[in-house]
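so the lab meeting is tmrw and i was supposed to have these ready like two days ago... anyway. pasting both below. for each one the top line is the aa sequence and the line under it is the structure tokens. i havent really looked at them closely yet so no promises
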Amino acid sequence: MSNRLLTSGELARRAGVTPDTLRYYERLGLLPPAPRTAAGYRLYDPATPERLAFIAKAKALGLTLDEVREVLGVAAAGTAPCEHVRATLSRRLREIETRIAQLSELRNTLARALRRSRKLPVASSCLCEIIESQEIPRPERGRPKNRP
């Protein structure tokens, strides 16, 4: 690999992202601020494509950009971030499992409503019998309501 600094366009092509993404990542602190030429063009370190690949892999694991920034911060502080990543992945997995359960419950509710709707007459006396005949489940005690 060359030690030559990369322009935004070169880096974007190598990494498969847009120059806008590079600027956004820089604003978020995922990429260090790039030095500029006299004309104002950003010049990136030749190791930046590896950092962008790391960010892409972290996103593929479901980490948010804020979580990726935390991991990079832990590493920059001189600590191996693997325990932090393990805890983050565990938390994300629990969130995903909760969301899957919620979506499964919604799927069942929609399937029941659709089956029930086929038996309902088309009525002009209400806005929509399918929706109006839907029962709203009461939240369980001690469980916070989901807000839209």
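ok protien two:
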Amino acid sequence: MADEYQPPAIMKLAGRQAWYYLLPAIFVLLIYVVYPSVRTLYLSLRTDDLTAWATAACVEGQPCWGILQNYQKAFTEATVVFRNNAMWIALMVPFVTAAGLGIAVLVDRVSYESLAKAVIFLPMAISFVGASVIWGLVYHWRSEPPQIGLLNAILNGVGVQPVPWTTGGAITATLAMIVVGIWMWTGFSMTILSAALKGVPQELIESARVAGATEFQIFWQVTVPIILPTIVVVLTTMTINVLKIFDIVFVLGKGQPGTQVIATRMYIEQFNQNNTGLSSALAILLILAVLPIGWVNVRRFREQEKIR
């Protein structure tokens, strides 16, 4: 019987050297990702003052989740943040994706495509805080005239009562902030989907036209199925971005409890209320919400690599 294959010594040496190159990256991940995550999980199981396990926070006669008491607080005292995050996802994610796809299709048919894309993508070059300050001036409301906010000045000019966009109510303020998010992220969606549209084989489109298909039919029955993997990537990426939204809500929301999302409530509980337990629990819930979506993206990328 022939001897089993033994890899050359140089291959074994190359395998060890590969680990040497990976060690710095592994070290960085351990320090800045793994350790903070484990530490946050540990803190989420402690009481607010970190002197005992969360069971000490239980009150006699009331339901108690044991060491998961901070998670019970998150689901009972911070329910508004989950509602607001759901509103952001339900409104912003599909609208940004649809608007980006529509704009990508339209600019693909004009001679000034590059200029149009540059103008639409421009908000992405602005920081979230900068964009929030700009839109704060647009939404600015005063109880007495004159109105110095652009939007309310326009409304006042056409005889419509000015609206306190960011201070008049939680739902109105949240919708106003979602508009800012759409304005910023539509350019990102357009760029990704425009690149996908460039990869659609023109032979298929021409064949569909010869067969008598309308442009609408070509779009839904030929173009969309081909770029569907890219659309899914945009949807999942935008969902992750919306789950982690912070800057816009923190600046424009001005601390209103009704407009808070998971990230802003986590910040307020930690740095304003010194409530490390609840803040850490919210952070863990945010991680758990993001991980499955990230896994979907990774799995889809791997499937695409296999096809290639």
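from a quick look at the 2nd one: The CA atoms of residues 170 and 258 lie 5 Å apart. The chain has one domain: 65-307. will dig more after coffe
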